[in-house]
Write a sequence for this structure.
């Protein structure tokens, strides 16, 4: 349970920093994930009766949210891939909580390991890219994200005057 509270605090901090960096998608996801860790910690830590069923419904609702977020994160390919890999895990976890089927619990665990591997790869690839100022491991950027990384400064500054927080007068 202590791990869940640490994950909650860390992801909430990342959410706060992402809002400051004007990355609304990452901020929303990290804030939501922080809330999900908190929900897990409270339900499992208190030993509430019917807890697995509650978490089953919660995971199925999270599956719907994740599908909606995956629909809008496609240009951010690394984040999109983590979400797409997470969708079957949320489905299996939700159904396992509702049915209690042992094979679904094991499947959800295996899918959780896959999510961890994909997340680790994405984080490592982005960290290497940041350190070396070039793409080292492929993460499949497309659209505006690809142009921002591969283009010059003028590509990154395009439409700057229409960005949130930029005003002509105060």
């Amino acid at each position: 349970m202590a791990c869940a509270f640490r994950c909650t605090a860390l992801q909430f901090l990342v959410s706060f920093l992402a809002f400051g960096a004007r990355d609304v998608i990452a901020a929303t996801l990290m804030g939501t994930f922080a809330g999900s860790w908190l929900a897990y910690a409270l339900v499992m830590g208190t030993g509430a009766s019917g807890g697995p069923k509650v978490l089953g419904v919660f995971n199925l609702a999270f599956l719907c949210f994740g599908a909606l977020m995956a629909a809008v994160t496609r240009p951010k390919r690394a984040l999109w891939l983590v979400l797409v890999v997470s969708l079957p895990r949320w489905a299996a976890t939700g159904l396992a909580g509702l049915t209690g089927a042992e094979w679904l619990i094991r499947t959800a665990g295996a899918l959780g390991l896959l999510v961890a591997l994909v997340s680790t790869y994405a984080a490592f690839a982005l960290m290497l890219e940041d350190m070396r100022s070039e793409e080292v491991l492929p993460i499949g950027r497309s659209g505006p994200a690809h142009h921002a990384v591969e283009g010059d400064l003028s590509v990154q500054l395009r439409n700057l005057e229409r960005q949130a927080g930029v005003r002509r007068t105060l």
About this structure: The chain has a mean pLDDT of 82.
